[in-house]
Specification:
The protein has four helices and no strands. With about 130 residues, the protein is an all-alpha fold. The protein is globular and about 50 Å long.
Length: about 130
């Protein structure tokens, strides 16, 4: 039971970190779009980049915490992030699925899995005095 509790806790913390990173990236891109004349069509690309980067960071954090089952925990983080994306899409856009929507969801999942695999396989440095 304790193992399941810690995995849920680490996954939720990792998803929170990933969402914060996604929001920061979107904020930076919004400032960029306000300062530079960028076509409105670029917003979808910026959202895909931000969500994918947030997914990768969430997966990486979870992989570093759990130190095992990178694909499973990465898919779990990615799945939660995808559910959050779908909820926000329904709230603000009235869910009209497009090819970019599915691309976004797939990329978030893939990058979260890649991040978790990297996090699990990252070697810890020992400080030698």
């Amino acid at each position: 039971m304790s193992s399941m509790h810690s995995s849920i806790k680490s996954t939720l913390i990792s998803v929170l970190v990933g969402e914060i990173i996604t929001i920061v990236c979107l904020f930076i891109f919004s400032i960029l779009m306000a300062k530079v004349d960028i076509p409105l069509a670029m917003t979808d690309i910026f959202v895909i980049i931000s969500a994918s980067f947030g997914g990768m960071i969430a997966g990486y954090c979870n992989g570093r915490i759990m130190k095992e089952k990178g694909m499973l925990y990465g898919a779990l983080c990615g799945g939660i992030l995808v559910i959050i994306l779908i909820i926000f899409n329904v709230i603000f856009n009235g869910f009209a699925p497009t090819g970019l929507t599915f691309l976004k969801l797939i990329l978030v999942m893939v990058f979260a899995i890649i991040g978790a695999i990297i996090g699990v396989n990252k070697k810890s440095r020992r400080i030698k005095y």
